[in-house]
């Protein structure tokens, strides 16, 4: 029987929460323009931005090229929430189940991007995906930098 776990990180996002949500909902293939460790996102079934669509990420984590095939399990526009359920890929070598939720909310005028990782490890030897959560925080910051207007030089 595997161990279940849940990791959550909320990151301030100064480039506008709507920008972040729209990017992951409708244009995940553009994440690679902001983050050099994301090599691409391909559509395998359905349409970007729709529940039931299957996408495959190509990325570099812990200095290794990896892939993750996911189904968009849930989209809640009002809450700016997207759930990705892992189907195949490198993570499934260590985890029985893996669910990634991205939620954008505004609290007291500050946009927060919250990453939630819910997982079940295949065995007791598997570690918690803390470095993956850190990776997602870094991607959030890279996207923020990419979408923040640069000061004009005159």
TrEMBL record:
<dbReference type="InterPro" id="IPR000916">
    <property type="entry name" value="Bet_v_I/MLP"/>
</dbReference>
<dbReference type="Pfam" id="PF00407">
    <property type="entry name" value="Bet_v_1"/>
</dbReference>
<dbReference type="InterPro" id="IPR023393">
    <property type="entry name" value="START-like_dom_sf"/>
</dbReference>
<dbReference type="InterPro" id="IPR051761">
    <property type="entry name" value="MLP-like_ligand-binding"/>
</dbReference>
<feature type="domain" description="Bet v I/Major latex protein">
    <location>
        <begin position="2"/>
        <end position="150"/>
    </location>
</feature>
<protein>
    <recommendedName>
        <fullName>Bet v I/Major latex protein domain-containing protein</fullName>
    </recommendedName>
</protein>
<dbReference type="GO" id="GO:0006952">
    <property type="term" value="P:defense response"/>
</dbReference>
């Amino acid at each position: 029987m595997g161990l279940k776990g849940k990791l959550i990180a909320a990151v301030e996002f100064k480039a506008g929460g709507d920008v972040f949500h729209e990017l992951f909902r409708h244009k995940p293939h553009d994440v690679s323009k902001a983050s050099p460790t994301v090599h691409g996102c391909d559509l395998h079934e359905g349409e970007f931005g729709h529940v039931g669509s299957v996408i495959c990420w190509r990325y570099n984590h812990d200095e290794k090229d990896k892939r993750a095939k996911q189904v968009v399990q849930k989209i809640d526009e009002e809450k700016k929430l997207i759930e990705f359920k892992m189907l195949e890929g490198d993570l499934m070598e260590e985890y029985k189940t893996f669910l990634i939720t991205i939620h954008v909310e505004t609290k007291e005028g500050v946009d927060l991007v919250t990453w939630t990782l819910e997982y079940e490890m295949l065995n007791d030897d598997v570690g918690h995906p803390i470095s993956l959560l850190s990776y997602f925080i870094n991607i959030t910051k890279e996207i923020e930098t990419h979408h923040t207007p640069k000061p004009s030089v005159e």
